[in-house]
């Protein structure tokens, strides 16, 4: 431990030489990105030496990388030196009250049926709601720990379960994986850690919603889920409610490890600030999510409902290494106004008799661009691999775009890969039919869109599905008629 | 209840309705007959408020209101119901879910409280009997994969659920076998009261044996060229439409 500290000191003092100083009392790192900042973050979080070194290694790799440009999205270059890379959970923020909240936002929250208390929490104002969720978390924590389940923040996990973190961190998404994954590895702030021991079926949905850290885990989240052999867990990510987030860039990494006969379901409903009607502002969401079915008969299922962010770049993937393992990807991606989404999945069949299923439902409205990008790769020894992909696009109006980029790479003759794609327009006659039954156009659109996305929404846990339905309607409000 | 005066409507620059006049009172059943392409569905669509049609002249008063000023969903809530000739499919949306949305929006407009799930299902069960429709059909996606007969039956079921004042049935008999025709007509007849009215669009007299009209009108080239009682329908059945066409043409040359 003392050795860790001395190395830390060495690094920090080195930065001092360059005339750069830090204030350890502050909750925020200075703006900019360099090794000093990374040391600062690591020190702030009292991390062990190995983790600091891991971060620095990632940073050095990242420096040699260039931003990917293959995605079908356009945005001005992000000044990564202009960002702040660490901001601790805000304590009670002084004197901000409800009156200061954008009335437009309040209206949106109200339409979603979110209580004022919750609104306050979302705005990072009140701590009571946050405290509420702490008590919720602790209640559950008792139940969970009896089963040997670990569910805590990533930082806590580093302190309390360093061996597990060390073993699995970067094992599914290596720091070299891509530009944003490398950046995340260098500067990640916090996130969730979840460990399900062998043979344990997690009795409840685990959700970041129930954790205090969730509110402010910041721009570079790191989530690690480990499901040992024969275990099961269903994990819900983040926001079931709109999170107005001032951060411009989000580059999260999620890693899932599933042992033999283990099953992990990972659900996301993403509704970050999409920018305004004119395409101003909004989050850039550049996320790397990947799971490995490491053991035989393992199963990983991704379900995502993407409604927010100005630019989305996201491909939750499965490495099907174990024989008979199964990967699934269910996605609804909605874009409106000037939003751009390039999302899809990668299914990499390595083991024998592996199966994957892709159901992607894109919905484009306004002047948005919505792309599905999916890769199905069947390796040489993956005998009898099966894939079924269904990629549907729904267009609303004629100024938006829907694109499908399927990549299929098959190296085993016994593979069976099916790809179906449809593009349809939301029909005037469908809307008129609804109108004729007394249903207002907006509600008609919501009905039709939810019907279209049903196969995906059905994969979500009940309460989540209801939220997702409301969100879809909200996102598309005013896009027809 | 409904008063149509000199109604002209066109689509993509082609005039389809060329001066329709029609008075419908509460408690009445009117049949509109006429050869294919004469404008029957167009009339139904214009009354229901389909935007593709441009009304170029005339007026429609419904329960004292200028119907043409109202949005389609408001017309529906006011009590105009159209049983479509070709009901559309809405994938992934069950009839039950669809109807619950519709019924509650209509109820809200009429100042009634929304029905909760239990009350709604009770109402549904009651109305299902009217057209002998199966619950299973209603849990499936709306009209998706329904047979022609099932779609028509579902239209009348929806009519029963929405309790309209003016129902327009557009070729509800087409695609129905004789048993289904009897069941559907039976449903329509049970829904009849002295407070509501029905316009039955058909080109077969067969349906009118079951739903007996008070008046029969012949629509031809966008105009009502002849009106009469049920006997007119029988006459048409016997003689076809040619004599009407001849009458119209000779009148035009005079
Ligand atoms: N979109 C359209 N453009 C041009 N003509 C149309 C269009 N839709 C319908 N029509 C024409 O309008 C006329 C009346 O059609 P319709 O009202 O469906 O007749 P009916 O129901 O009596 O058989 C037909 O001649 C038909 O071809
Ligand atoms: Mg017709």
Automatic annotation (TrEMBL), chain A:
SUF system FeS cluster assembly SufBD N-terminal domain boundaries: 147-202
Pfam families: SUFBD_core, SufBD_N
Superkingdom of origin: Bacteria
Residue ranges annotated for the SUF system FeS cluster assembly SufBD core domain, each copy included: 210-451
SUPFAM superfamilies on file: Stabilizer of iron transporter SufD (SSF101960)
GO BP terms, alphabetized: iron-sulfur cluster assembly
InterPro entries with a match to the protein in the record: Fe-S_cluster_assembly_SufBD (IPR055346), SUF_FeS_clus_asmbl_SufB (IPR010231), SUF_FeS_clus_asmbl_SufBD_core (IPR000825), SUF_FeS_clus_asmbl_SufBD_sf (IPR037284), SufBD_N (IPR045595)
Family: Belongs to the iron-sulfur cluster assembly SufBD family.
Protein name: Iron-regulated ABC transporter membrane component SufB
Species this chain originates from: Algoriphagus alkaliphilus
UniProtKB/TrEMBL annotation, chain B:
UniProt cross-references to SUPFAM superfamilies, sorted A to Z: P-loop containing nucleoside triphosphate hydrolases
Domain ABC transporter: residue ranges: 2-246
Source organism, top-level taxon: Bacteria
Gene3D superfamilies (alphabetical): P-loop containing nucleotide triphosphate hydrolases
Gene Ontology molecular function: any one: ATP hydrolysis activity
Presence of the UniProt keyword ATP-binding in the record: yes
Keyword vocabulary terms for this entry: ATP-binding, Nucleotide-binding
One Pfam family cited in the UniProt record for this chain: ABC_tran
GO CC, one annotated term: cytoplasm
Database matches in SMART domains: AAA
PROSITE patterns the record matches: ABC_TRANSPORTER_2
InterPro entries assigned: AAA+_ATPase (IPR003593), ABC_transporter-like_ATP-bd (IPR003439), FeS-cluster_ATPase_SufC (IPR010230), P-loop_NTPase (IPR027417)
Protein family according to the UniProt entry: Belongs to the ABC transporter superfamily. Ycf16 family.
Stated name of the protein: Iron-regulated ABC transporter ATPase subunit SufC
